[in-house]
Amino acid sequence: MEVASIVRIDNPQIDLRIVSLADGGADLTKEFASISAQRPADGPAAVVVPLVTGPHPRVLRAVRDAVTQSEAAVKITDPLGPHPLLAEALHVRLAEAGLARADRMRLFNVSSPVDGIIVATAGGDEAARGADATAVLLAARLTLPVVPAALDGQPSVRDAAERLRNIGANRLAMVPYVIGPEADRDRITTAAESIGAGCAEPLGAHESVARMVCVRYGAAFGEIEGFDDLSD
Questions:
Q1: How many CB atoms lie within 10 A of CB 21?
Q2: What's the pLDDT tens digit per position in 20-78?
Q3: Which class would CATH give 84-203?
Q4: Phi, psi (degrees; rounded to nearest 5) at 122
Q5: With the CA atoms of 63, 122, 14 and 61 taken in that order, what torsion angle do they form, in degrees rounded to the nearest 10?
Q6: DSSP secondary structure of the chain
Q7: What is the pTM of this model?
Q8: What is the residue extent of each domain of the chain?
Q9: Less Cβ around it within 10 Å: N or C end of the chain?
Q10: Across the chain, which distance is largest between two alpha carbons, in Å?
Q11: Over the chain, what is the mean pLDDT?
């Protein structure tokens, strides 16, 4: 995955592994067992940084289950967001799609071709609530109304569109607040088309995503006594 390649450039000392949860976590369980066998028994085996922008019950449950089944000493970090870096990345994605304009030096909105933005996330109702802080950060950058929605929960994208139109925002844009794999691309496209909104690309391998992986890893590194063994 491209995010891993970006992280490795500045952190070649880290044993960085990308594991998909497409199988429900079976591969992750095997990975934990393998890592544990290579690490000292009295120390932590690994840190897991979930590649999700906020609360995602299915993903986090799969990670926790893999830890339990492998009996590995693993630290699970918080999701990547909310954080101003991710709000900046969403702004960039909107600008790349022609749905926002930005000052190149400060990345703040100069003028906009839309009246309102929907930050669409995946992970159900909890994920939508978790996206609210990022929506506030993005609204401050764009000086536009920004509301969160869930691609797979409530409030739905349609609910968010109605909320914006009720306050006079009729030209809408949607920006997926997802890294990529946690939300089906067709579902994203269909959701945007259903409300007549332009749609930006998901965050994907944006530099800010890679930076947040390092931020979460570094925070976990500082919390665990004896954790320096993991970077050998």
A1: 19
A2: 888 888 899 999 888 888 877 777 788 999 999 999 999 999 999 998 998 888 899 99
A3: alpha beta
A4: -125, 145
A5: -10
A6: -HHHHHHHHH-TTS-------TTSSHHHHHHHHHHHHHS-TTS--EEE----SS--HHHHHHHHHHHHHHT--EEEPPPS-S-HHHHHHHHHHHHHTTS--B-TTT--BS--S-SEEEEEESSHHHHHHHTHHHHHHHHHHHTS-EEEEETTSSSBHHHHHHHHHHTT--SEEEEE-S-STTS-HHHHHHHHHHTT-EEPPP-TT-HHHHHHHHHHHHHHHHHSTTGGGGG-
A7: 0.89
A8: 2-80+208-231, 84-203
A9: C
A10: 61
A11: 89
Task: State pLDDT tens for residues 68-112.
Answer: 998 888 899 999 999 999 999 999 999 999 998 876 445 555 567
Band of residue 223 on the pLDDT scale cut at 50, 70, 90: confident
CB 172 within 8 A of CB 143: no
Q: What angle, rounded to 10 degrees, do the helices at 26-38 and 57-70 form?
A: 40
pLDDT tens for 208-222 read: 999 999 999 989 877
From first CA to last CA, the distance across the chain in angstroms is 23
Residue among 91, 86, 48 nearest 212 (CA): 86
